[in-house]
Specification:
The complex is a heterodimer of chains A (about 220) and B (about 270).
Chain A (H helix, E strand, L loop, with lengths): L7 H5 L1 H34 L3 H16 L2 H13 L7 H26 L4 H8 L4 H16 L1 H14 L11 H12 L2 H31 L4
Helix pairs in contact in A: 2-3, 2-5, 2-8, 2-9, 2-10, 3-5, 4-5, 5-8, 6-7, 8-10, 9-10
Chain B lengths: L1 H19 L3 H8 L1 E7 L7 E2 L5 E2 L1 H13 L2 E7 L4 H6 L5 E7 L2 H4 L3 E16 L15 E4 L3 H12 L7 E4 L2 H10 L4 E5 H8 L7 E18 L4 H16 L2 H10 L5 H9 L2
Parallel strand pairs in B: 1-4, 1-5, 7-8, 7-9
Antiparallel strand pairs in B: 2-3, 5-10, 6-9, 6-10
Helix pairs in contact in B: 3-10
The chains are: A mainly alpha (about 220), B alpha/beta (about 270).
Chain lengths: ~220, ~270
């Protein structure tokens, strides 16, 4: 290969790259947290007997799982823009990622809920627990433990999907990389560094999740 | 027998090493196809016509170049950001894509002499009444990601102490115009040629071309791999002959509806 690497320009621009990496971390962690909360609600709604809740949850899951993320981000930005609703690139990407995360995790959570024997619901009831108490103290802790691994998979996806933010001009890691490489044309160098940064971010998030899980599940993962 | 074999092997080695010195110019001629990269969302330099075929000033230059070389032109559609990766990966032999010839970029890629000069200009809704560049102060401004006008605007904004909060970058030229049309931004910066083309369409009848970016001529060249000096030499002569043989004027007439202005020709000759 005849390519000569020039790393000094990348080092010069490191502060901007780190800034971009921070935005990536920020938007994906927020999208995960919101996604988890909504997914729990959607999973409960989907298993519920009341029709409207179940219907909303099903539509959400079907759209989120069966359309490309690229399209959803575009819809949130330019699609809503056509109706005069102007989200900033950050909010557009965040809402699209929350939408996708919630959609995928709903199915994961529903599987988790259903893996818990229904006798436990009756047992909790007979102990005089309300249904909120049942979920809070009996069902959720066991469920989260079971779906921990599939859930972290979704976390990693969420981080990597945030790179699609470049589509709507968001200055996250990919957008910043693209801008910097077009100024200097040192494409390969900037892309390599960005890939390494994505790797580190995913590892960091997984590490954070495992720390949290140790506290929550008392080391039983 | 042994001697013969050695001679054959030596001949083969000599042949392959001769082959290894073939440069890009030889490669293109031997292949019989010129892989020419053009940005096709930048009318009238590059766009898709009503039959979905590549057209525009840059596309005509690709075809003229292929004709000069006696090969077929294979037009590849690129985004701004794809231009260099496509050269490095060998997908394109040359990119005729309105590439601004900055010294920073010339460290990475080989530039020919300039082949066009643009002005950067503001386009906004008529009711914004933008008289000068300083009027952009409290307005939301956008531009396409990775373009020189993005850099120029951001440098200007920083110098004026405006910050980046009012700035939005778009993935492509088309998205920037879409954003302007939808009202996501109050004004965008693009090139005078692209703006003039867009203003002819019905969608942009409420918009007007505003001031130019101060003190900036966007001089653009053809790019190729930096190491391919002989190839770049050939391209330079090609550009000179485009002017001398009248092909430049012909293409200008076709896409801008008038003869190439004398100051453009002069600027191209001066900037050489």
């Amino acid at each position: 290969m005849e390519y000569e690497f020039h790393w000094n320009i990348v080092l010069q621009k490191m502060p901007e790259l780190l800034n971009g990496a921070f935005v990536t971390l920020h938007v994906s962690v927020l999208a995960m947290l919101l996604g988890v909360v909504i997914a729990v609600l959607l999973a409960i709604a989907k298993m519920n007997n009341s029709k409207p809740f179940c219907y909303v949850a099903t539509v959400w899951v079907e759209i989120a799982r069966n359309t490309p993320a690229l399209f959803q981000i575009y819809m949130a930005y330019f699609g809503l823009g056509a109706f005069g609703i102007h989200l900033s690139p950050y909010v557009a990407v965040l809402s699209a990622l929350v939408f996708i995360n919630a959609g995928y995790l709903t199915e994961t959570f529903r599987g988790g809920f259903q893996s818990i024997p229904s006798t436990q619901y009756s047992a909790s009831k007979s102990l005089g627990m309300t249904s909120i108490q049942t979920y809070r103290y009996v069902i959720l802790p066991q469920m989260l433990r079971r779906i921990y691994h599939p859930m972290t998979n979704q976390f990693v996806w969420s981080i990597l999907m945030s790179s699609l933010g470049i589509l709507v001009g968001m200055s996250e890691l990919s957008g910043t990389t693209q801008r910097l490489q077009s100024l200097s044309f040192r494409t390969l160098e900037f892309f390599i560094v960005a890939a390494v940064m994505y790797f580190i971010i995913t590892k960091l998030v997984l590490f954070g999740a495992s720390l949290l899980s140790r506290r929550l599940f008392k080391g039983e993962i | 027998m042994m001697k013969k074999l050695t001679a054959i092997i030596l001949a083969c080695v000599a042949f392959t090493s001769m082959n290894a010195t073939a440069d890009q110019l030889d490669d293109v001629i031997k292949r019989g196809t010129l892989n020419c990269g053009v940005v096709l969302d930048f009318p009238p330099m590059g766009y898709l016509d009503e039959n979905n075929e590549p057209a525009g000033f840059d596309v005509d230059y690709c075809k003229d170049l292929a004709e000069a070389l006696g090969v077929d032109a294979n037009i590849l559609n690129l985004t701004w950001g794809d231009r260099i990766p496509s050269l490095v990966a060998g997908k394109t032999d040359v990119v005729i894509g309105s590439t601004s010839d900055t010294l920073e970029r010339a460290k990475s890629v080989g530039f020919t002499y300039p082949y066009f000069v643009f002005k950067f200009q503001v386009i906004s809704n008529k009711d914004k009444n933008i008289e000068s560049f300083a009027d952009l102060k409290n307005l939301k401004v956008g531009a396409a990601l990775g373009t020189t006008y993005e850099t120029e605007y951001l440098a200007y904004a920083e110098q004026q102490g405006w910050g980046k909060d009012n700035y939005t970058s778009f993935k492509s030229e088309n998205d920037a115009f879409l954003g302007l049309y939808q009202g996501k931004v109050d004004a965008i910066i693009s090139t005078n040629t692209n703006i003039a083309t867009k203003l002819q369409s019905d969608e942009f009848s409420d918009f007007e071309a505003g001031p130019y970016v101060p003190n900036y001529d966007d001089v653009v060249g053809i790019i190729a791999k930096r190491s391919e000096v002989a190839w770049i030499n050939y391209l330079n002569l090609f550009l000179i002959r485009q002017i001398r043989d009248g092909n430049m004027n012909e293409a200008y007439n076709k896409y801008f509806g008038s003869d190439a202005p004398a100051d453009l020709i002069k600027s191209l000759r001066d900037n050489k």
